[in-house]
Amino acid sequence: MNKIPFDEKELEVVGIKENVRGNFHIYNTPISSKQNFRLCYDTKCPMWEPVARGIPKDFTPMVIPDNIARAFVYSGENFANRKDGGGPDMYGMVWELVPTGGCMIRPGTPALLDANDWKEVIKLPDVDSWDWEGSVKANAEYLEGGDWTNMVMLSGAWFERLISFMDFEGAVLALVDDDQKDAVKELFSATTDILCRIIDKVAEYFPTVDAITVHDDWGGQANPFFSEDTAMEMIVPYMRKLTDHIREKGMVAVLHSCGHNEARIECYIAAGWQSWNPQDMNDTPALYDRYGDRIILTVNAELKDGMSEQEQIEAARDFARRYCKPGKPSMAAYDPKFIAFEKELYRCSRLAYMGESF
Asked: Which of helix, strand or coil describes residue 267?
């Protein structure tokens, strides 16, 4: 796409994107936000800074049992997550609503005690039997509008899924126990195949979905749960199979992995993830400097309550100079109540990605 020079008329607000994170302003952009996200991934040079959270439309329909079990239905269907969530996921593991929100499996009685027994204990879901056509009808209106649409896969196919089968302690042990490792690899191969089959269905029935975000949390507040060698051997090859499949279907592969996992970013890159949104305990600026040309990172803007308009403007300029580089883009995360920041970031990032100074 030919570069389009910035015009101050683009700063006209032509709409509001309402979101649980706040109301984001939609400017008079020369291309759509959907096209801009695609440029970011395909060319590593968006027209302006993409907003990681709040602008994309998350899509987690009821047709995938995990979304009901995890109380994480975001779709055109009438489902009360905080009231009706919980129950069996696609593998029959039963999740319970918790008072603080979301669901978890009650610990202490794991379904799988030894990974070698997985074929006798774990029943693989029949993805073809799910009501995909009914889901298309139920979500037709929700998916209208041309938004960048992101389907979220909770629990993924690897460590988080293993936790759901074995509890945390059993899952960590199984990854490193020589007597269980081969069985874990077989299990991960099978669960990855299930996600690939789901991706096939998404591509067939929901062709407007642009990205697939898969959850697999790898760390706590201070450190990752397992070594790089373990990750490379036990998980990365199966992740790579999925990310290759996602990209073959024309979609973008996004990883959500909570925890202090900056030391595992090379695993994420080797696994083929196109972007990752690190939590704040990670040194995201350092990660961007070293790896920003190989994986697109979400950067949380440092904004504080009480900032003046001029302070917000300066913060936006600093952000654009630091993180909006052609060939090395980022995605911004910020609270849209900082209106002056939002507006100035659009202007400055437009110039920055054009290679112009400001």
From this structure: helix
Q: What is the distance between the terminal CA atoms of the chain, rounded to a whole angstrom? A: 23
Give the C-alpha separation, 117 to 110, whole Å.
Answer: 13
Distance of alpha carbon 210 from the chain centroid = 12
Residue 100 C-alpha from the chain's centroid = 22
C-alpha distances out from residue 244 to 49, 205, 294, Å: 26, 20, 16
Q: Where does the pLDDT of residue 1 fall: very low under 50, low under 70, confident under 90, or very high at 90 and above?
A: low
| Dihedral angle of Cα 270, 274, 277, 283, to the nearest 10 degrees | 50
pLDDT of 2 over the 70 cut: no
Q: Alpha-carbon torsion 22, 26, 27, 32, what sign?
A: positive
Identify the CATH number of the domain defined by range 58-276. Answer: 3.20.20.210
Instruction: Sheet containing 57-59: give its strands across.
Output: 57-59, 149-153, 211-215, 252-256, 275-276, 296-300, 331-333
Which residue type occupies 182? D
Place of tokens 């009901």: 68
Q: Where are the domains of the chain?
A: 1-53+299-358, 58-276
